[in-house]
Amino acid sequence: MSDETKKLWETSPFTDEAHAALHFHSDVRVTDCTLRDGEQQAGIVFTRQDKVDIARALDRLGIYEIEAGTPASSDEDRAAIEEISGLGLRAKISALVRGRRDDIDLAAQCGVWGARISLPISTIQRNAKLKLDDDQYIKLALESAAMVKERGLECIFSPFDTTRADFPFLARLLETFAQEKTVDRVRIVDTTGCATPEIIGLLVLRMRAVSDIPIEIHCHNDFGLAVANTVAGLAQGAQYMSVTVNGIGERSGNASLEETVLALRVLHGVDCGVDLSQFMDVSRLVEERSGISLQAHKPVVGRGAFAHESGMVVAGLLKDPFTAESYVPELVGQSRRVVLGKKSGVTSVEAKLAALGLTVPTDQIPAILASIKAEALRTKRPIDDDRLRALVEAAG
Questions:
Q1: Exposure string over 238-272, b if 16+ CB within 10 A, otherwise e
Q2: Of 114, 263, 305, 386, which one is least surrounded by beta carbons within 10 A?
Q3: Tens digits of per-residue pLDDT, 207-219?
Q4: Is residue 283 packed enough to be buried (19+ CB in 10 Å), middle (13-18) or exposed (0-12)?
Q5: Residues 384 and 325 in one domain
Q6: How many CB atoms lie within 10 A of CB 193?
Q7: Which domain holds residue 367?
Q8: Which among 259, 290, 321 is the end of a domain?
Q9: Keyword set for this entry (predicted)?
């Protein structure tokens, strides 16, 4: 690790040994589905302009591919997908379709680069939604893929609920795709978020043993494992990650773009070509347009992700930031904050006073600290800068 990199983060000395058996692809790519699966979160509505603005922001971020929506869902979605496809973005634009000619025609008419064929593969999903036996399923999958390729589009096959599929049938499907050469990528979909990192890693390894079709990982966050599951799949050779800004998506959401990309860069040394410094701008845009407020302690982009109150923590932080942080906040467009409250110490008060340009005799600081703690207990809130100035004035 270079001296410059050491200034940005400080991770575990066990990394090299612990990660020796991992096999990341040499060109890991980000496919963002904020505009499709992200909007499927209950209560989120993106207008056409919202989608265009978010797509532009994702393109500036350096996303490889944007899954822009489902053309069959509404006229508004079709118009948005068509407009995004015509923006001349560097990012490739794809759309989700069912295994139907009319869906595929709609996607092609929107001018997208690729179509994502969504068909359920687990027994529980197929019994409830598709009513096809194995031979009929494979016939439909092949016909749909052929239609996509006939229209000059990239074909990404998304057999959803992959993590609950019967593997012999999945293997048969992959073998058939490999023979026909009409599918450019297969997406593992953890539809109900029930997989673990070990399951995702195993599934990638078994799929790669059957065919060399590139694999994408799409995980839901029902057990809080979406990021870990996505990284686990990539660590075993999957090339693509399907993520959303702020982790929005159905039920508990999807793997968070910012958390997954940062974990890859800092913890695994995998650079996905994404501009980390723009994370905050993109996150705030999606937060505003989705109406879904972030929890304060949300990793990477939460407003409190780099806020420090504990006196002992701040004392160490001021000597060496890596005593309390594994990477510098500027890496992701954030900044560090010292918060004054019940758990603060003298060092915290001194640091805050210096930051505000306030000069206070040393013998007055304990009294000011006592006032801070008392007020924080009474209000159950931290002390803001204006209130600190008032306390300093009262102490003087």
A1: bbbbbbbbbbbbbeebbbbbbbbbbbbbbbbebeb
A2: 386
A3: 999 999 999 999 9
A4: buried
A5: yes
A6: 22
A7: 307-395
A8: 290
A9: Transferase
